[in-house]
Design brief:
The chain is α+β, with helices and mostly antiparallel strands. The protein is built from twelve helices and four strands; from the N terminus they run ββββαααααααααααα. 65% of the residues lie in helices and 8% in strands. A hairpin with a 2-residue loop joins strand 1 (18-22) and strand 2 (25-29).
Amino acid sequence: MAKSETCNSCEKFKTMIGGQALIEGILMRGPEKDCVVCRTSDGLNIEVKDRKVPAQKSALKWPLLRGVYGFFDAQITGVKALMHSADLCEDEQQQQQPGKLDQWLEKKLGNEKFQKILVGTAVAAGVGLSILLFFLLPMVIGGFFYRWVKSNLGINLIEGIIRMAIFMVYMIAISRMGEMKRLFSYHGAEHKTISCYEAMLPLTVENVRAQSRLHPRCGTSFLLVVMILSILVFSIASSILLAAVPALAAMRGRFLYKLIMIAFKLLLLPIVVAIAYEMNRWVGRNDNPLTRILRAPGMWMQRFTTQEPDDSMIEVAIEAVKQVLPEKEGSDRW
């Protein structure tokens, strides 16, 4: 295997530091700080903020609850960072002016409240679109198989296969888009830099360039775990529901039955996310034959969601990591 593909062979410790690719930049999140570094015509634009984390004894740090909280916290922080990077994009500033509706809302609500509404709307739209595309659509398509497939497990397997197919086609399709290649290259720069840091090598362009662009604790792997885990959770939970409510089982195949099952499975999504987070946490902390098998599908998907970065992108990633390193060495251990 080529050196650039040996993802964590030199890993000496695992860090909780992670990031997200932006428009000409990277969001990096550490244990104490969040940092957005973007490349502009004037050089690197750096914005560092203290990270708001739940108190040590907060219920939001309990197993399962921390997964749901972490998911939505990451979504909100990521959208804010993406909007910030878009604002810094010189081409967009020159070519686009706020619409009349945006100007009116900003005037009526004030800039800060307007920004909160924008972020909230963007997060809701992003999560809603993901649910629609990767969960609701497979459930609707799976409903057409009720007349042939009588097993509850069989229906959930069909929905799962459809869900995985849509997810993979979507990822592969956007990886072919020219405008996404730079974003995915920054994603690769983020992975390479974190791998270099975990190998305890000096954060130089040369050392980072030698690392793999694939990383075992990537968000792509988390999404894939959610997709796979949903098959098991939906199968078990819906079987329990049908056993507990015989009248519902008698309605099988009818429109109301399909509607109830879709709503029931959507209500189960936070549970799926919570369990997926704990699984990803365990797999990320351990390295053995079983965990390598479990992370293999996510590593394969990263071949589409990451690209090799150029040196200027690596410089952005290095600066982003340096800005979020904890004051106490080793306190960012995963």
